[in-house]
């Protein structure tokens, strides 16, 4: 519902000056700004925790978040907001990153929580959640994609820079959907902890992937994927 033609009522078109009026109305409905989406995977966390509240960042994970925060700050961009998963590891990662980006508002959401977005193709033997999990998580993660990954609003005048701190499964699924690749291939990608994935959404709706899972700013001994 952001395609210009979908935003106007063609039935109300003036029959005498139809083409000119349509062109004018279409221009009024076209986005003007570019959105830059930075998808950050949370840092390394305690895998032994049974409940989410126990799955806190490890000391290395906290170092990774500091490095990611420093990297984002070094880009010199005016970030508009940080939207993060409500899970503990994503929240803690956000808190550390935000120290390097003072004044940028933080928003927590359940939509970006980790889950099983869609059954992967080809299947893998080491990860087989119950089928019902795909239905429960898949609808939510698809809702996150539709809610957050889209062209700029018509009223937006300047380019925007937004950070999303969430999880590997969510990011991989979003990348596939945004690039119009088969979403079942999401598990073919691998993302390091604290990595940066950069999507660009142009005013015409075209999407480009600038970076996928970048951790080149981290020393080799600080890089993990678990």
Automatic annotation (TrEMBL):
<dbReference type="GO" id="GO:0090141">
    <property type="term" value="P:positive regulation of mitochondrial fission"/>
</dbReference>
<keyword id="KW-0378">Hydrolase</keyword>
<dbReference type="InterPro" id="IPR051021">
    <property type="entry name" value="Mito_Ser/Thr_phosphatase"/>
</dbReference>
<keyword id="KW-1210">Necrosis</keyword>
<keyword id="KW-0496">Mitochondrion</keyword>
<keyword id="KW-1000">Mitochondrion outer membrane</keyword>
<dbReference type="InterPro" id="IPR013078">
    <property type="entry name" value="His_Pase_superF_clade-1"/>
</dbReference>
<dbReference type="GO" id="GO:0012501">
    <property type="term" value="P:programmed cell death"/>
</dbReference>
<keyword id="KW-0472">Membrane</keyword>
<dbReference type="Pfam" id="PF00300">
    <property type="entry name" value="His_Phos_1"/>
</dbReference>
<dbReference type="GO" id="GO:0005741">
    <property type="term" value="C:mitochondrial outer membrane"/>
</dbReference>
<dbReference type="GO" id="GO:0004722">
    <property type="term" value="F:protein serine/threonine phosphatase activity"/>
</dbReference>
<comment type="similarity">
    <text>Belongs to the phosphoglycerate mutase family. BPG-dependent PGAM subfamily.</text>
</comment>
<dbReference type="InterPro" id="IPR029033">
    <property type="entry name" value="His_PPase_superfam"/>
</dbReference>
<protein>
    <recommendedName>
        <fullName>Serine/threonine-protein phosphatase PGAM5, mitochondrial</fullName>
        <ecNumber>3.1.3.16</ecNumber>
    </recommendedName>
</protein>
């Amino acid at each position: 519902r952001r395609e210009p033609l979908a935003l106007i009522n063609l039935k109300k078109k003036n029959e005498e000056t139809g083409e000119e009026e349509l062109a004018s109305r279409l221009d009024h409905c076209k986005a003007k700004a570019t959105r830059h989406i930075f998808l950050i995977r949370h840092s390394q966390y305690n895998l032994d925790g049974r409940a989410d509240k126990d799955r806190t960042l490890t000391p290395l994970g906290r170092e990774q978040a500091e490095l990611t925060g420093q990297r984002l700050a070094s880009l010199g961009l005016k970030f508009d907001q940080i939207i993060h998963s409500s899970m503990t590891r994503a929240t803690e990662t956000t808190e550390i990153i935000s120290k390097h980006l003072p004044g940028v508002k933080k928003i927590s959401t359940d939509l970006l929580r980790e889950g099983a977005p869609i059954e992967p193709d080809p299947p893998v033997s080491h990860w087989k959640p119950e089928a019902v999990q795909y239905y429960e998580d898949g609808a939510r993660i698809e809702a996150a994609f539709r809610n957050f990954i889209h062209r700029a609003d018509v009223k937006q005048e300047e380019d925007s820079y937004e950070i999303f701190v969430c999880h590997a499964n969510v990011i991989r699924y979003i990348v596939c959907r945004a690039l119009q690749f088969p979403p079942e291939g999401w598990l073919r990608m691998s993302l390091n902890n604290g990595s940066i994935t950069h999507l660009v959404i142009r005013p015409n709706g075209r999407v480009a992937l600038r970076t996928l899972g970048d951790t080149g700013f981290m020393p080799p001994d600080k890089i993990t994927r678990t």
